[in-house]
């Protein structure tokens, strides 16, 4: 049914399969460039705010009411950075000297919240669809809170040793821009190949449908 609906939609569109494939690849590359641009932009913003000590100042204020929950300044600083860009925030959380349970809870919140970088990407893709971004952002924030709260009992149940403090290993591997670029290119090539394979399958399915209709 899915392939039949896809074939019907292509026939209604009227464009040949080659043009459809080219447009699909072009749109995919544009989306990848947009996503990469947002990630780079917010990563630079985080680095700039850290260099001018803005995030440190915010973390100092926010960590005061969180002291009864044993949430220190370094973890709050990492979470604030992750609220801007989730990948950078996850790296900052992994480098803090807190218990693994706190790291899991912090990363769970960041993944649930997704970061302003992803929110900006979502807003650009949802523009004109009628979806309220404020409601989306509120749901993502509640998603992050719920994920963090659920991670605490689950971590204690599945991995009791997570309450111990794990200090970051100074010689831990951190991928450079070359490794990130190569992995991104691999994903891009894999995505293009998947789109091409899907286009070939649709073309074959369309020919088989026409052959069946010709027999009848």
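Q: What amino acid sequence fits the structure above?
A:
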């Amino acid at each position: 049914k899915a392939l039949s609906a896809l074939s019907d939609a292509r026939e209604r569109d009227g464009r040949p399969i080659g043009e459809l494939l080219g447009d699909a690849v072009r749109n995919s590359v544009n989306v990848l460039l947009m996503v990469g641009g947002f990630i780079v932009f917010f990563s630079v913003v985080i680095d700039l705010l850290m260099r001018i000590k803005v995030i440190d100042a915010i973390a100092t204020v926010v960590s005061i009411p969180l002291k009864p929950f044993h949430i220190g300044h370094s973890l709050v600083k990492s979470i604030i950075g992750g609220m801007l860009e989730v990948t950078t925030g996850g790296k900052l959380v992994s480098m803090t000297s807190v218990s693994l349970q706190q790291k899991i809870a912090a990363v769970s919140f960041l993944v649930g919240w997704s970061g302003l970088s992803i929110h900006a990407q979502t807003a650009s893709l949802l523009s004109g669809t009628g979806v309220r971004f404020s409601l989306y952002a509120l749901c993502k924030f509640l998603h992050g809170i719920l994920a963090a709260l659920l991670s605490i009992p689950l971590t204690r149940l599945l991995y009791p040793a997570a309450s111990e403090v794990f200090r970051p290993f100074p010689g831990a591997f951190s991928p450079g821009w070359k490794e990130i670029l190569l992995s991104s290119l691999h994903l891009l090539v894999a995505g293009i190949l998947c789109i091409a394979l899907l286009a070939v399958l649709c073309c074959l399915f369309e020919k088989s449908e026409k052959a069946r209709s010709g027999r009848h």
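Q: And what stands out in the fold?
A: Residues 1-34+178-216 form one domain.
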